[in-house]
Amino acid sequence: MQVRFGVLGPVAAWDGAGDAIALKGPRHRAVLARLIVARRRVVPVAHLVTDLWEDPPPDAVGALRTFVAALRRALEPQRPPRSPARLLVTEGPGYALRAEPDAVDAWRFERAVTTAGTPADVLPRVEEALGWWRGPAYADFSDEPWARTERSRLTELRLHAVERQAEARLDLGLAGEAVPDLDTHVAEHPWREEGWRLLALALYRTGRQGDALAVLRRARDLLVEHLGVDPGPGLSRLEADILHHAPHLAPGGQGPADTVWARAAAAYDRSVPTGARARLESTVGLMRDLAVTGGGGLRAAREHRVAAIAAAEELGDVELTARVIGAYDVPAIWTRLDDPDQATHVIAAAERTLAALPSCALPPGKAATRAVTPPVPEHAAAASHGAAVTPANGVRSPLGARDAVRARLLATIALESRGTNSPRGPATAREAELLARRLDDPGLLAFALNGVFMQTFHRTGLAPHRDAIGTELIALSARHGLATYEVLGHLIRLQARSALADFAGADAHAAAADQLAARHELPLVSVFTQWYRALRLDATGQAPPQEVEAAYRSAASRLDGAGMPGLEHGLLPLVLLCLRLRHPSPASADDSADFGPYEPWTRPLLLLRLGHRREAAAKLRDVPDPPRDLLLEAMWCLVARAAAAVGDRETMARARTALTPAAAELAGAGSGLLTLGPVSQHLDLLR
């Protein structure tokens, strides 16, 4: 029978009958807890020793083996002597706990809270999951650095669960039941704007309009007084809706827009046959609109996108398939993919479709046009992006709907190839842009420019180039009512101006993006602008490191459930590491945290902090070039610091060559998320 483990409180284990398993002393529990934190991954013996003892005794490895042996006897008492362990296993240089996905309460809790469903499904599931908490996560090890990040993550997930429970109660007309828990929630966690929003809405739905407005005022005063920030668009919009008695706030009621939606959906179901191609195209349009809502909507759109493309390919209609692939023109600002496997499928389908489309003005893979203006340097992007283009032979070919479809496929490949070294990404971005300009299609050009932006990371120091792309996107989108791309333009310029240390300019773009987001109900935008404001606090030195860290952690909490794993994974540990490297009074970063995709470039510095100079030097010798993305400069600066510390001249030369074009920029600030300070200071280390 399956052994179960509990970390939502003191660390515990239970056998198949539900009886507690004696885990002996605190060191035994610490070994078990450390392996659970690793989530089935191997933890090297050296790391376990460092985590268990601040000053390891001479026989630390032998003691560790004794703890492991005792744990194995406790967890698998029926295992025959000398037979291999199946649960706490030895693998490579260390140990791993191969617990089943539902054997650890924290893992079950995460799945229960993040699984989608109707309010009637969600409420009992989340209520039950919240009941699994027996105290603070990893309560026995609250001061251990190796547990800190996981404890923080689980705590954030629990707060999200409380809010999701309240939201389900509101959706089911149980506003009165939601108020007491939410009142406690905001008192204990006053920086969570979603908690304030739900409490105000619950009060309004129980007939307490004055109390609802008082709650919103209290939230605003706290945010302004303690963090120096205004409430986000969600709270501002709710206050306006309460003052105007917006119909959609009524309990269980539908506003006019809801009624129109329901009637239109019913009419569509009645009128359009189930197998019609029109349904497939309409579904993609719906997924595109769903994606910009963030959270569950973004996850759902991603989940169904490949299925929609496969369904179109099964119909054998290449032009329909092309439209289905190209219709998903969701603006993208982050350069790491949320689902690399899905991107591979989408690129492959787009390439197959391009090859099957009838030939037209620009054959796939060949740029048949050239700018009539002479080539310009990268930093003069405004000129190059405004250049008229003609066919290479000087004769303008007729272009039409098929060319627009082709351009969308090319732009899709450029977007889905971001952050990779594939030469196909830049080539398709250029072709899509040229076609879009010749077609004089503003929406298509905005989509193509998004692809161009995603392919401007082949070297460091390209913030001015991206700034020019953002400038054109804003102007183009404002002229033609392309709200989501206008927001994208402002976010691109926010990043670029931050890289160039122009925070007054970046502030203006953050404000413009927030205003557009509030007007057009784009909740993900405030995730990026809140991160930017934490970065600004950091880069300008306007607050001590402790306040900066709090601002970063508050911003990171917004990523929980936002549907952007490519952005979320490893980001907070990386940000806290960068903060600690820049300030003498260290942030509470965790060297054993999961740095995710940033591991190869952070590991040498982490090893140096532990005094493992030889291991750090070995890691540096093998360190690859960083991915071509918004953190390119930051990753090279991490490498530069480590290489300078161990005197690795070859790696120092690599870093110097890579960073020299960005000498005038702030390292990492071009992401809008973090900074390591001026690149020039890192170049000084490399001389």
Structure in words:
- The chain is mainly alpha-helical.
- The chain folds into 4 domains: 171 residues, Arc Repressor Mutant, subunit A (Orthogonal Bundle); 81 residues, Alpha Horseshoe (Serine Threonine Protein Phosphatase 5, Tetratricopeptide repeat), CATH 1.25.40; 152 residues, Serine Threonine Protein Phosphatase 5, Tetratricopeptide repeat, CATH 1.25.40; 231 residues, Serine Threonine Protein Phosphatase 5, Tetratricopeptide repeat (Alpha Horseshoe), CATH 1.25.40.10.
- It is 61% helix and 4% strand.
- The protein is built from 31 helices and 9 strands.
- The strands form 4 sheets. It has a 3-stranded antiparallel β-sheet with strand order 3-5-4.
- A hairpin with a 5-residue loop joins strand 1 and strand 2.
- The radius of gyration is 27 Å and the shape is globular.
- It starts with a strand and ends with a helix.
- About 6% of the residues have low confidence.
- One of its GO terms (biological process) is phosphorelay signal transduction system.
- One of its GO terms (molecular function) is DNA binding.
- This is DNA-binding SARP family transcriptional activator.
